[in-house]
Amino acid sequence: MLSKDHLKFVFIGAGSSVFTMRLVGDILGEKSIVSGELALVDLDAGLLRETGEAVTELIAFAGRDFKVTAYTDFREAIPGADFVFMTIATGGYERWKSDIEISTRHGVLQSVGDTIGPGGIIRALRTIPVIVDIAREMEKVCPDAWFINYTNPEGAVCLALQRYTKIRSFGLCHGTPDTAKWIAKNVFQVEPERFTYNAAGINHFTWFLEMRVDGEDVYPVFRQKLTETGMDRAMPISTELYDVYGCFPAPGDRHVGEFVPYYMKEKVLREKDYKWKNNDFVAVQKWRDEARELFDRVRVEKTGYEEFLEGSGETATHFIRALIMGDPAEEMVNVINDGYIDNVSRVIVELPTVIDRDGLHPQKIGPLPDAIAAQCDRLGREYSLMIDAAVQCDYEKARQTTFLDPLCANCDYPEALLKDLIRANLDLLDGKWKKHV
Question: Per the confidence metrics, is the pTM higher than 0.90?
């Protein structure tokens, strides 16, 4: 149990400014955290300076006792850390766009491209070595710190941390809780606190196993409610997967469609007219512009503080409070499947986890429906190959990952696609990759 009055939080990838601000807002709103240091880390010195200014403004408005420091080198920031938040995207926004463009030329469409498919694979190859290096440095200078991951591909990053480092780590994603709120409000039309659930699977492909309203099982009427409310048309892919597998997936069509290659075929996308086709960077840029406007309201206009202090919906501070106060919290966490799901291998899974003063306690799920278990097992094994390829600079495992990946099956020549992605990222990869392209 943490007993410090003064805690040090390190944000690596603080240039994800609005996300950082929302996490900081959660910390400032948590009364069990008395005071502390917020150490911001980003390679972009200009963006780091701006984030520091905005965070300082937010702290002053909240009237809390926190010091802000800023670093371009994570090694200077992490000594003495209690919690390290990881929100990096190696290569940034432009490299993400490049991933999609290269994949599209090879006939692979991706509605997101950050978790699975060729976009997920190349993102893992360039991101995981960086994260493992950071965690290994943490083993030396802050071995008792908790590493909280938000970087995608979430499942692969979490598996790499748990397989290749000794640091205490877990991964969080708001996708399943957000879908639960969507179901409560739009399908059952009740307040979210009345809706409870049990869910498990792979990050961005998690399945609701139980649904209850006021303690009563409502899964038997869920399909009827989807139709009555029109929410089956709002989430057509998720609804069809529910009809096929008998469980409803999270976190919405934009992500779950990528895990089933049928939905990312050009003919199907055209005929079905699904909202999320190939990643729509016009929409993404709009989100980015809106986020920047919100950020600048605090930094420049000195207004809009409440937006960041009302609660982000992220769950990190629930865990931090549990570690400090000993009051148990339960949230969806990415952990290695050490027997929690009976019919899935020892791969990374996302499932309910209790945390208290003694750490994490993933909950026993039992068996998943066979078809869902098979999907999760295959995806987990793909992640296993993916992280080994990234950490070991192993081209053969990268090639095996590409041939195993469901979305890569949509292109004619998977290895040519892999080589093109590696070639476009040589500046961000270990030099050992160059000989393979």
Answer: yes
